[in-house]
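Hey, sorry for the delay on this. The queue was backed up all week. Below are the sequences that define the complex (chains, strands and the ligand SMILES where applicable).
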Amino acid sequence: MLRIEGLTAEVEGKPILKGIDLEVPAGEVHAIMGPNGSGKSTLSYVLAGREGYEVTGGSATLNGVDLLGMEPEERAAAGVFLAFQYPVELPGVGNANFLRTALNAIRRGKGESELDAMQFLKLARARLKELQMSEDMLKRGVNVGFSGGEKKRNEVLQMALLRPSLAILDETDSGLDIDALKIVADGVNALRAPDFSALVITHYQRLLDYIVPDKVHVLMQGRIVQTGGPELAKQLEASGYASVQAAA
Amino acid sequence: MNTVVHSGAEGFLHRFEGLRARLPGQRLDWVQALREAAAAQFRTAGFPTRRVEAWKYTDLRPVSDAAFDEALTILGDDVALPAPRGERRAVFVDGRFRAELSQLDDAGFAIGSLAEQLPRLEGRLGALARPAEEPLVALNTMLFEDGLLVTVPAGVAGGVLELRSLTSRSERPSAFHPRHLIRLEAGASLTLIEEASGPEDTRYLHNPVFEIELAEGAVLTHARIQREGVKGFQLGTVYARIESGATYDNFTLNAGARLVRNEIHAVLAGPKSACHMNGAQLLRDGQHADTTTVLDHAAPDCASRQTYKTVLSGKSRGVFQGKIHVHQVAQRTDGYQMNQALLLSPDAEIDSKPQLEIYADDVKCSHGATVGALDADQLFYLRARGIPEDKARSILVEAFLQEAIEGVTDETARAALESAVAGWWEKEAA
Ligand SMILES: Nc1ncnc2c1ncn2[C@@H]1O[C@H](COP(=O)(O)OP(=O)(O)O)[C@@H](O)[C@H]1O
Ligand SMILES: [Mg+2]
């Protein structure tokens, strides 16, 4: 379970997160919605440990383990996975090599044996097939020359391979057509398990038709201002964030 | 015998006086004449200083202020050499050919010691080198003792030949100046993998000169791995003349030495010939590496590609100077030059000087240079996937070098370069 208490953080001296309280019990999927600039990506970066996002107060633990004191790679080993809103291109780094290096790093962390190139390829092919992605993606540079949709799918592929215990999806749905959206949703739903939880950050209610969340939180100006069931997402879609602001 | 040790140019000239009667070719008038002329040139020029335009960024004082003895080869026959990289290997210790360490049987063409064949090299030795213009080449001409001599006859695929240069450990700094002559006749091919190394605790100067002649349609892959000891100096000059339809593919990895100059003069002399000069410089604290290329497009329809990448850590300094001279006859020249540096430390420094001189009108020529640090977003992306910081950095450094190395099409050469890069990083991360 992810537990965030009184979390405050700033970027370049500017307070962005102003006291976040949030609990995602194991086995649940929660959605975070909110207007542009409300701090959704900042929250995901703070949880993943990105430099320059300075925590000024509060705590965040995953299954009782303090996340905020760890290096990014340690958090990944502890089960945190962030699907980036803007996946980074790595020219000169082959996607297959990258995925295998990441997978083996995580496996080492869990005390599991590393996979050789053949074992990895077998596993990767199976995941690619599930996600209806072409094998060609393994041969290319990481995200290099990928379309927006391909980049997002590559994030989901990484998630499917690394099997995190906490997945944070930062607007993984933006820029996807409805078919790709369903594939992404299937990818997340396939991971659903009693020891898996997810934070799905999205602008649109659309994705939540396919990944039905246990709870929906509304983040505005660095605070969670409202929490409800899946129906809250539909309500926001209909009446916009202004109504929440008025209510808050 | 005790001798007064002179430093710098004077020391070498003094040595020439003493050795003159014993250097190879002392009974050959033409060799004598070459050496005397070179001595006169070196006496006049001395070691280049930074006031000389071509040496603006590289200070040779660590070399010119030092005193070097003649190399005393004390390395025994028990040298532990790694397995050869190819079918054949020529081993030089302190610049002298060592037949008992080499494997050159059944080559089907001439490979061996230049010193042994000297009487037959009139007109060939010195055909391309220009001692009057390069003082270090004058120094080499004055004092060379030996070198690799290779002639691949027309149409022969010469396979892989390794040129291994070793330096023996010594108390006193030593210097050697091998002269290597490589000739590929029409349609011949060869992969030459050169690796130079030396002890970490010995000061020495390795001052090789290559004269490379590629006849019509010949293809030479020349991979150079420079892993000299940290107190060593390598000042190397390559001359290559590329006739019509021939290809010279040079890749130079500079990963060792306190100071290195990798200077290449290539002439695209016949139509439709090609020259690739790529390289990587991997520099640690206290190292200085200088790659200087001078490329003459002297015939029409030729292509040239240059990609140099420098990775600098600690307080190190890299230099790239690349001159492309497109002669008036060289219509439809296709030239490309790229020089990129990755600074891993705020104390590192790179100097870059591209220079294009174009006298033909129908020419495609581009060049560029970039300098940057490791990208924080890329680093975070890798670490967020569980990859430890060290490993993430090495992945990005290798990716940076990839573009230059992937251009090496010969697999043996590429594998040799990749393992040298990996070895450098392992030490760097340690
Ligand atoms: N790297 C950054 N440098 C400066 N300001 C930033 C940076 N990242 C985010 N911010 C600021 O933090 C606020 C929240 O941004 P963000 O977390 O990206 O919002 P959201 O993802 O909800 O659109 C915005 O005002 C944005 O301008
Ligand atoms: Mg965002």
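The interface with chain B takes residues 48-51, 71-73, 75-77, 81-82, 84, 87-88, 90-93, 98, 101-102, 105-106, 109, 158, 162 of chain A (CB under 8 Å).

I'll add it to the shared folder too.

S.
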